[in-house]
Amino acid sequence: MPGGQSLLCHFVVGDRGDPPAPPTIPAGPVIQESEGEAAPSWTFQDLLENGHDEALYDYYLTSQPALVDAVTGETRAVGAPAVYESLQPSPGGEYLLSVRTVRPYSYLVPDARFTKEVEVLDRAGRTLRALGSVRNIMHLRGGGGERLAGPVHLLEDLRGRLRPDERPGVLVVGLDVLLQARF
């Protein structure tokens, strides 16, 4: 955290129990729907394949953020446990930019393209402003480009862009990013 008086850490949830056991019988068929649109298709490795994989994903990636006092070691929980992709402090340390991965998960794309919730939190983890939800992105921009279109472009450009030279509490996003974002 700015000032060096505390650290923002992610801890394993204390009461999470044992990892989910694989089911003894299948829960049913895995059904996938298409939206009837033609789109380029990529081949990814190591994707989620079933409900058990989803449970394991949640089990191993859910964390409890906490502020740890650098001198005393005292910890104070920040918000609720979740699957955080990132949680970064503002330059003054009074706000946090949270990017959480939320369900539904996909069996077609890696977790970087799962649905995300982007929020500004206070130091206690309370939501001050929901900036948006970036839905599960499976389609690429036309023309064969590899850059994702729409809100994911905004999400990519939000990471690491809290600037200390701006007024406190102001989130700076380039105009080109806002013009391309579709919520």
Characterise this structure:
The protein is α+β, with helices and mostly antiparallel strands and 183 residues long. The protein has three helices and seven strands; from the N terminus they run βαββββββαα. The strands form two sheets. The chain has a four-stranded antiparallel sheet with strand order 4-5-6-7, covered by helices on one side. It is globular and about 55 Å long.
Task: Characterize the biggest β-sheet.
Answer: 4 strands, antiparallel
Rg from alpha-carbon coordinates:
19 Å
Helicity, as a percent range: 10-25%
What global shape is seen?
A: globular
DSSP helical segment count? 3
Q: What structural category do the secondary elements indicate?
A: alpha+beta
Instruction: Report the end-to-end length measured between terminal Cα atoms.
Output: 31 Å
Q: Report the strand count.
A: 7
Low-confidence stretches: 139-162, 174-183
The overall pLDDT average reads: 79
> Which strand order spans the largest sheet, edge to edge or round the barrel?
4-5-6-7
% residues in beta strands: 25-35%
SSE string:
EHEEEEEEHH
Key structural traits:
single chain, 7 strands, alpha+beta, three-stranded antiparallel β-sheet, 183 residues
Quick structural summary:
With 183 residues, this protein is an alpha+beta fold. It is 14% helix and 25% strand.
Topology summary:
Layout: E1 6-12, H1 51-61, E2 63-69, E3 75-77, E4 83-89, E5 95-101, E6 116-122, E7 127-134, H2 151-158, H3 175-180
Antiparallel strand pairs: 1-2, 2-3, 4-5, 5-6, 6-7
